[in-house]
Amino acid sequence: MSIRISAFAWVPPVAQGLVRDLRVRWALEEAGLGYEERRLKLGDNAAPEYLALQPFGQIPAYEEDGLALFESGSIVLHIAERCETLLPSDPKGGARTKTWMFAALNTVEPPVLFLNQLQQMNSPEAAALQKPVAEAVQRRLDGVASRLSNRDYLEEDQFTAGDLLMTTVLRILRNTDLVSDMPVLVAYQSRCEARPAFQRALSAQMATFHRNDPARQPSA
Ligand SMILES: N[C@@H](CCC(=O)N[C@@H](CS)C(=O)NCC(=O)O)C(=O)O
Asked: For the segment 34-44, what is each residue's pLDDT rounded down to a tens digit?
């Protein structure tokens, strides 16, 4: 089997460690599957050749023996379907895992992203919206923390693809106190990120950025 994932060759530090190919790299590492990178310069993701693979010009796209997928959640699910660690084969455990995958992407990530976008805007309107949006994020985080109040992982005591996606969503809040003020979530994120598969995935993404850092390129 030959697997290739798309990844930006380099992004500014504010986005390093957050680009969504990290989710796919992490799932592949958990599943013990090797992969190659299709590296794109910023802007090349809008080229027609890439749009044929990823209609929105986003990272990541996934290619596997003639199959092309996009959307990080769908790609992680595809990988998880062949990895008992990520998706329990017990039908109820598997269904709950998929529920938490959707919860991460559909319920928690949207307000988190909205807050992240507001923080990057420089306008009084954006500043005024930050407080109510942060409160909406807080309510979502309360829901996650409540689930984790008496268990180590969303699916009882087993790490799954639900935790993989939830962790990558929590990471987006790294420049706020929203997660860092919640000890249950801090412990949970650390537990998930301590996994060797996560560490390998993050190192691989960061190594690509390092190799292609414009500051390291010889000047023309
Ligand atoms: N829902 C998509 C979102 C993908 C996404 O937003 N990717 C970002 C990088 S993390 C991107 O490619 N941004 C550039 C753009 O949207 O043009 C997924 O989960 O795959």
From this structure: 999 999 999 99
